[in-house]
Design a protein that fits this description.
Largest interface: A-C, 38 and 40 residues
CATH superfamily of chain B: GHMP Kinase, N-terminal domain
Distance between the termini of chain A: 78 Å
Strand order of the largest sheet of chain A: 1-2-3-7-5
Chains: A alpha+beta (about 350), B alpha+beta (about 300), C alpha+beta (about 220)
CATH architecture of chain B: 2-Layer Sandwich
Radius of gyration of chain A: 26 Å
CATH class of chain B: Alpha Beta
Radius of gyration of chain B: 22 Å
Number of strands of chain B: 14
CATH topology of the largest domain in chain A: Ribosomal Protein S5, domain 2
Number of strands of chain A: 13
Shape of chain B: elongated
Largest sheet of chain B: 6 strands, mixed
Largest sheet of chain A: 5 strands, mixed
Number of helices of chain A: 7
Number of helices of chain B: 7
Strand content of chain B: 25-35%
CATH architecture of the largest domain in chain A: 2-Layer Sandwich
CATH topology of chain B: Ribosomal Protein S5, domain 2
Distance between the termini of chain B: 44 Å
Strand content of chain A: 25-35%
CATH class of the largest domain in chain A: Alpha Beta
Order of helices and strands of chain B: HEEEEHEEHEEEEEHEHEEHH
Structural class of chain B: alpha+beta
Oligomer: heterotrimer
Helix content of chain B: 25-40%
Chain lengths: ~350, ~300, ~220
């Protein structure tokens, strides 16, 4: 008697199948009109934005006095679903000179400058470092670096921060402005740094980081700066070096000026083609889409397998920053649909009071 | 490193046997260099592509204003960076691989170039000073290795020197503590002050006899090769790099271990290199001269601020 | 836009190409499929893309990492990665001339993508489709400029890198689009149309370069 070899169908629970065959699981869900995350196709996760309360000029929770110490100038906590991003903005002071001279255009002879060919680069940005906590330490991986630099690039080109907004107006200790004669030859500017930490990530985190960064910038306060002392040192071989001690006030500060109309919120969509070949149960609910489905805010292993993505920052009417990639062939209709959803979502988030804090 | 360039025994013996009969695979004489081809960028300053046979490198020189080092307030800053990327050969691994053979090669090359060009004072650092102690030019030469067929050192020294000679920094004026830079359209940019052109020549050594003859014997029939290609370089038993300029001054001599070579043979190498340096220097100067003539329009020639100088 | 393509200039790698348009020049090389250098890079179902981009001056920074990341987003859509399981395809890119202000990477990305395309063809790696990139900028007056120069970019409000796949010499699908700055939806769609027609024109040239290279390589057959 010979035994007949028979193939038994293997059965996996969804979370296991999501790891070994994410595409199959995703198609299974979509066939019956559901997403693995159980949200609607165009449903975003709820967003909650709050202060972190650790800033130098933020009121502490116990007595309402401002902290007055520390190097954090602005902060925010953004929660979306299970994922949390904490953003801290800190700053440093640099001499303008070295940076600006190398941007040759700024120091050209005034009368020869012809405004057609020489426009000053007016934009500034914030140097960002993103850390996605994954239970261990180490140098930032490619994803973190790419998100960090993309944030820098997007903020820079969107024109959210003017270079002038970071210029330092030196004063005496107290209130008055310095007279022209006492001003040092060099001018100073702030440089902003942002550290964003992401906890228990699920899905792409760029949107969350962008949101956290913008929210933190919105309530960043720059300290007033005065000159404590002027020192002229004779350095090596009798070279005179003028140095100034700059001190940041503990209480006096003013908010960072942002171009409010450039404030935006970013949304990521996945575009997936419905595979008609995947066998599905006839009696189950059938959805009527013409092949391609746009999913808002991907989450979970099955959804993250979608590698056609659209990321767009919008303030409701204008777009600022866009990234589209993938093999599925994104059409203008897909883009239009994504932009509509993104602008509605960003209007909701930007105006719902969540950002006002 | 997983991958390496393997040479079969047959190939090895063939090449060595040919060398003993004064024949190289590419038909050159033992002490003959490959043809040097130099091209410089027409639309910008400080960019040169040099090829030596199949070996090819590009060099870009850039300059910006920074604060000088505290202990050298009167000097500008000059940096040469050499990074070998996998573009020139998949045997060079990307990223940081400290301790591996490739990164040792890389360090060796960059140290040699650094000594040949920077330490020999080819670029006048004092002329880069703008305001003592607070502002100076920082000149940076980035070497980009594109194709590897041996002898990176010699070609790098040519590329760096051509790019330095080709480079112009924007003209400027000092107004109190302020520096005003002029655009290319407003005033002609000025060349760097190059004091001399040191060029490297690398010799490879081979031993047709056994080790004992090399150490004890008086035959001195070790083979000496100039400008080895990749295959020859891999088979070499020792190498020596000479850096020499047009004035027949020896700027650097490096022979780290390897085959023992008679001192008189090294003298011959020096003699040979000093014969070659004239031709090569002339070639470099011709390229630079041709380029600056192409850039000049006749009106500007009359209004030239900087006097022409021979380098 | 005058394009200069140098086909297979390097001989230590499987395929290479340099792409020059205007003041921007990039050299790319492709080696593969080769054995993965690290076990971590051996993916069981597809090839690992080892992308390495080096700037024209200075050391690679986060800027280059982002460019590598963008290239890594585009390439899986055009390379048949599942044909080379457990292996590595090494792509090394050297930017030779920037041709744009220091905070911009649009022109470089275009040159990188196009040179990598020709290098991939030369290396014989299996591709799903041809593709080509171009860039556009929109200035303060709302005018669209294809292949903007350095000063066009400096004076622009927004700029875009657009990649289309090409099928039967016709522009097919949008594979990649990267936009920075502020713009309206309609402007973006205009940009896409401009880019598509630009790519349609320029690809003829690239095609010619590739076909003459191939016929030169097969000269022994004639």
């Amino acid at each position: 008697m010979s035994e007949t070899a028979s193939l038994k169908p293997n059965k996996f629970p969804p979370d296991v199948l999501a790891r070994i065959a994410p595409d199959v699981l995703l198609q299974k869900y979509l066939q019956i009109g559901l997403r693995p995350s159980l949200r609607k196709f165009d449903e975003f996760r709820p967003v909650a934005i709050s202060r972190a309360g650790v800033g130098r000029y933020e009121a502490s929770e116990q007595n309402g006095d401002i902290n007055g110490v520390g190097s954090v100038l602005g902060s925010s906590i953004v929660k979306s679903g299970k994922t949390t991003a904490i953003c801290l903005i800190s700053g440093a002071i640099v001499e303008d000179d070295h940076e600006l001279i190398n941007d040759y255009r700024t120091k050209l002879e005034k009368d020869i400058i012809d405004s057609e060919t020489h426009t000053d680069s007016k934009n500034a940005s914030v140097y960002t470092e993103v850390e996605i906590s994954r239970g261990g330490s180490g140098p930032p991986n490619e994803e973190e670096i790419a998100i960090s630099h993309r944030l820098y690039e997007t903020i820079y080109h969107s024109g959210l921060i003017d270079r002038d907004a970071l210029k330092i107006q030196l004063g005496y200790k107290g209130s008055e402005q310095l007279e022209q004669d006492f001003l040092p030859h060099t001018s100073y500017s702030f440089v902003l740094y942002a550290t964003i930490q992401v906890f228990s990530r699920a899905g792409p985190v760029y949107d969350l980081c962008y949101g956290a960064l913008v929210s933190a910038l919105r309530q960043t306060r720059l300290p007033a700066v005065y000159i404590a002392e002027k020192r002229t040192e004779v350095g090596v071989r009798r070279v005179r070096i003028e140095e100034y001690d700059l001190v940041c006030e503990a209480e006096k500060n003013e908010p960072l000026r942002l171009n409010e109309n450039k404030l935006a919120w970013s949304s990521t969509f996945g575009l997936v083609e419905l595979d008609r070949d995947v066998p599905h149960d006839e009696d189950k609910m059938e959805i009527d889409t013409e092949g391609k489905i746009l999913l808002a805010e991907l989450e979970g292993e099955a959804e993250e397998d979608i590698n056609t993505r659209i990321t767009v920052s919008s303030n409701g009417s204008t777009l600022s920053g866009l990234s589209v990639y993938g093999a599925a062939g994104v059409t203008k209709d897909d883009l239009r649909k994504a932009f509509d959803l993104a602008s509605r979502h960003s209007q909701y988030v930007l105006n719902s009071g969540g950002m006002e804090m | 490193m997983v991958r390496d360039y393997d040479i079969s025994n047959n190939e090895k013996q063939f090449v060595l046997a040919a060398l003993e009969q004064n024949i190289r695979l590419d038909g050159r004489k033992l002490l003959q260099m490959r043809d040097v081809h130099i091209s410089v960028s027409r639309d910008e300053y400080g960019y040169a592509e040099v090829s030596l046979g199949k070996t090819k490198v590009a060099c870009r020189v850039t300059a910006e204003i920074t604060k000088p080092y505290e202990d050298r307030p009167f000097d500008g800053i000059f940096q040469i960076s050499t990074d070998i990327s996998p573009i020139c050969s998949p045997f060079f691994e990307s990223g940081l691989t400290t301790g591996s053979k490739q990164s040792n090669d890389e360090i060796l090359i960059s140290r040699l170039i650094e000594k040949a060009v920077r330490r020999s004072g080819a670029l006048d650092l004092e002329s880069l000073c703008i305001i003592a102690g607070s502002k100076c030019w920082a000149v940076r030469a980035d070497l980009q290795f594109l194709n590897y067929d041996g002898n990176f050192i010699d070609i790098s020294s040519i590329a760096v020197m051509v790019a330095l000679l080709h480079f112009r920094k924007p003209d400027m004026e000092i107004d109190g503590n302020n520096v005003i830079l002029f655009d290319e359209d407003q005033r002609n940019p000025v060349p760097l002050s190059i004091l001399h052109i040191p060029l490297c020549f690398t010799f490879q050594f081979y031993n047709p006899n056994d080790d004992e003859e090399n150490i004890k014997g008086n035959l001195n029939n070790e083979l000496i090769l100039l400008d080895a290609n990749l295959l020859e370089e891999r088979l070499s038993l020792g190498s020596m790099t000479l850096t020499i300029n047009k004035n027949k001054e020896l700027c650097q001599m490096v022979k780290c271990g390897g085959l023992n070579i008679d001192a008189s043979m090294i003298m011959n190498c020096c003699q040979h290199a000093s014969n070659l340096v004239d031709d090569l220097t002339r070639k470099i100067n011709d390229v630079i001269k041709k380029d600056s003539e192409l850039r000049k329009n006749p009106v500007e020639k009359e209004l030239q601020v900087v006097n022409q100088r021979e380098t | 836009m005058s394009i200069i393509v140098d086909n297979d200039p390097l001989d230590q790698v499987d395929g290479s190409a340099s792409f020059e348009f205007g003041a921007t020049k990039v050299m790319s090389s492709v080696t593969g499929p080769i054995e993965s250098a690290r076990p971590r890079n051996e993916l069981p179902t597809k090839a690992y893309l080892d992308i390495n981009i080096r700037p024209s001056s200075g050391v690679p920074s986060t800027r280059e990492t982002l460019l590598e990341h963008k290239l890594g987003q585009l390439l899986p859509a055009v390379i048949n990665l599942d044909q080379y399981p457990r292996q590595t395809i090494q792509i090394a890119v050297q930017v030779l001339k920037n041709g744009e202000p220091k905070d911009y990477t649009a022109r470089q990305l275009v040159a990188i993508i196009n040179s990598v395309f020709v290098a991939l063809i030369n290396s014989g790696i299996s591709l799903k489709s041809s593709f080509m990139a171009t860039c556009c900028s929109i200035n303060t007056k709302g005018e669209i400029k294809t292949s903007p120069t350095s000063s066009d970019l400096a004076n622009s409000v927004s700029h875009f890198v657009v990649v289309y796949s090409i099928k039967d010499q016709q522009v097919d699908n949008l594979l990649f689009c990267d936009g920075l700055g502020t713009f309206k939806q309609k402007q973006l769609f205009d940009v896409l149309d401009h880019a598509a027609s630009e790519i349609h024109l320029s690809f003829q040239h690239i095609r010619q370069v590739i076909s003459s290279h191939v016929s030169h390589n097969y000269i022994w057959k004639a």
